[in-house]
Amino acid sequence: ELKVEQNPLFLSMQEGKNYTIYCNYSTTSDRLYWYRQDPGKSLESLFVLLSNGAVKQEGRLMASLDTKARLSTLHITAAVHDLSATYFCAGSSGTYKYIFGTGTRLKVLA
Amino acid sequence: EAQVTQNPRYLITVTGKKLTVTCSQNMNHEYMSWYRQDPGLGLRQIYYSMNVEVTDKGDVPEGYKVSRKEKRNFPLILESPSPNQTSLYFCASSGQGLGQETQYFGPGTRLLVL
Fold it and tell me: Which chain A residue is nearest to residue B109, measuring alpha carbons?
């Protein structure tokens, strides 16, 4: 049974700093997803990672996938206040059954 | 505009009073899904549907029913709501196949069961 764990759960960082959010999963996951949720809002898809070694970048966010280590990372470069949100990773096991992590609440301080 | 809509957005009800939350998408997506979001638990999948008349259980299906009679609609039915079903509910849809896996989420329905 697929389990997905994120850490840290909370992250407070200064503007301009770099940091990484980690997403570990317990068994084979066909794909790995990253989502963003602003307070009181819905979820927005950020990245879909399909294969080992996949790396995707959008602005100050970069996601990568290591299927051998069962680990995905979301790296934030030179954080800005607008990146404050909750970030979720999710895995799936081939049948469109999705398992989400508990989320990382990121707060970027000016 | 491509979107997933949910109604109602907010609902207060009492234990045992049947309710339906509607979900509709205009992107001709085959796949639709329902999630509930609770503090500290992330999102948990309730039911999903691969296409018309094809549904399956997610992680937390107890107390919920779904149907998929039309491709665009995927209603969530609570036959006899209980207070532990108080939650924020999201509907999502996506295409199938490579490059179409991105899920698009509805705005959410906040449900309070007294």
Answer: A42
- Residues of chain A neighbouring B105 (CB-CB closer than 8 A): 42-44
Tens of pLDDT, residues B5-26: 999 999 999 999 999 999 999 9
Torsion angles phi and psi, residue A95, rounded to 5? -115, 25
> Taking CB atoms and an 8 Å limit, are A95 and B33 in contact across chains?
no
Q: Do B105 and A42 touch (CB under 8 A)?
A: yes
pLDDT tens digits for B42-89?
A: 999 999 999 999 999 999 999 999 999 999 999 999 999 999 999 999
Judge contact between B58 and B43, C-beta under 8 A: no
A48/B102 touch (CB, cutoff 8 Å), yes or no: yes
Q: Say what the alpha-carbon torsion angle B25, B26, B32, B35 is, to the nearest 10 degrees.
A: -30
Residues 6+ apart with CB under 8 A from A34: A23, A45, A46, A47, A49, A63, A72, A74, A87, A88, A89, A90
B chain contacts of residue A88, beta-carbon cutoff 8 Å: 42-43
Amino acid identity of residue B55, one-letter, is T
C-alpha–C-alpha distance, residues A74 and A62, integer Å: 6
